[in-house]
Amino acid sequence: MKILDRERFWAFLKAYVICYVSFVGLWIVLDAFSNVDEFMKRAEGFQQVLAVMGRYYLIRQAYFFDLLGSVISMMAAIFTVTWMQRANEQLAMLAAGISTHRMILPVVLSSILVSGLSVANQELIIPRFAEELQKSHDDDGKQKISLLPTRYDSRGLMIAGKEADRESRTITGRFNVTAPVEVFGSIRQIEGKQATYIQADDRAAPLRGGWLVRGATISPPLSDDVLNDPDSIVVAVKDLAGFPPPFGDVREVAGDVVFLKTTLSFEAMTRKSNWYQYGSMIDLVNGLVDPATDASDRNDVTMYIHVRLLRPFLALTLMFMTLPLVLGGYGRNMFVNLGYALGNSAIFYGVCLFSQYLGSSGVLDPPLAAWLPLFCFAMLATYRWGQIRT
User: Fold this and answer.
1) Using an 8 Å Cβ cutoff, are 79 and 22 in contact?
2) Strand partners, 195
3) Distance between CA 226 and CA 183 in Å, rounded?
């Protein structure tokens, strides 16, 4: 590595860190002061509150990096090139026979590295802390969460609940299942006062891969032959040994107990409408074929898969569109160059968001909505990059 290359890499790193700390630090200060009362609900004492706030914002660094990584990378590239021009380094290197493209190669490689780190962050770090990232300021993980109205499993069972406890993986207050005609020969309603999800890999429970429904009533009733058949979708439970205890007061869930076999997991019942933004590519593909994903979510997931694949290429396209504006403005004020770059970025992201909106609304096919900005701006970026004077 040449000395000048190391200097460019170091300049890019300094600019990136300064921009990132400035933007994210300002947001953290404003958000922390606005929500300090919410944090105080989760802890007592100054030190505990600081520990809670520190964990909250530390985990969100993964989200901030995912959200601002490409924009700050572009800004760091602009500052690096502008400072190079300001110190007359560009003119000296051109006089020495070094082309402009070779001169800014470290900046391009740095931006590619940031794009790679962004992909790793999205695939490895964000999914690991997805639940934490979706919590509010006052959520300590013990609060009950509200559920979406209804979900469907692979058999067409419509399952609904009121609220859930994450620690015990239990839906409380109301649990309702509507079985279509194809399942039992007629429409059946299964209602329960409480339902606990038993994972398929739970070794202690005698029945796995479904919901243990307490205080259950079935209307119209099913015959004993169906309820006692171990291969049936709904199985009567006489012995609760091996199953987790009920949530809350046992007397409130007194009554019959049945086990409902379904592919609809606790995660599928409790996930929020924007869950796909925090999932890995494998999670998105699984969600796309999951019957619990409704039509509108499936449309968004399809488009988000394409957006995720194209994100590194869109980030590089933005940089190849923006750098020529700075390189062609030799001698201009640094902040004027940054203004051109931010204006260019605003147009770029405006078109991307509008295209994704058209895809979510059904005006455009999701794949076309995701690829359209690349089709439009890649040609402009190629043209501008070819106009760089060497």
Assistant:
1) no
2) 171, 213
3) 12
Identify the pLDDT of residue 332: 62
Q: What are phi and psi of 76, to 5 degrees?
A: -65, -40
Cα distance between residue 316 and residue 73, in whole Å:
10
Distance CA 390, CA 388 (A): 6
pLDDT for 334: 65
> What token pair was written down for 304?
């988000």
Q: How confident is the model over 26-71, as pLDDT tens digits?
A: 999 998 888 888 888 777 777 888 888 888 999 999 999 998 888 8
Reported as type and span, the H/E element at residue 145 is: strand 145-146
Q: Is the dihedral of CA 142, 243, 259, 220 positive or negative?
A: negative
Locate 194 and state its tokens: 């409480």
Long-range contacts of 94-97 (CB under 8 A, 24+ apart): 94/390
348 phi and psi angles, rounded to 5 deg: -60, -50
Give the 3-state secondary structure of residue 336: helix
Q: Which two tokens stand for residue 240?
A: 């609760």
260: left (phi over 0), alpha (psi -120 to 50) or beta: beta
What DSSP character marks residue 6? H
In this prediction, residues 173-193 reach a mean pLDDT of 88
Q: How far is CA 195 from CA 106, 163, 210, 383, in A?
A: 57, 11, 10, 60
Label residues 141-152 b or e (16+ Cβ within 10 Å = b).
eeeeeebeeebb
